[in-house]
Amino acid sequence: MDGDQKFWLGLWAIVATTIVSIVLMICIAATYGSAKQWKTLQEMVRNGASPMAAACAIEGKNGSDNQYPIACSKYP
Length: 76
Prior knowledge:
Elements: H1 3-46, H2 51-59, H3 69-72
């Protein structure tokens, strides 16, 4: 392997490592909020709340990101 090939191999290794690092940081940042919500939901259920009512309280009754719009309509 000559010097030119080593250069391009090293350059592509740096590019690949950078892309993998960026993807990993995005994945960690994206799951942090949902992990916090899951922990809050578990604590509410442990304290006696209905799992569905707790999920609706966390998601918000009319929130745009509400996963349970029909089921949450019965909870105030």
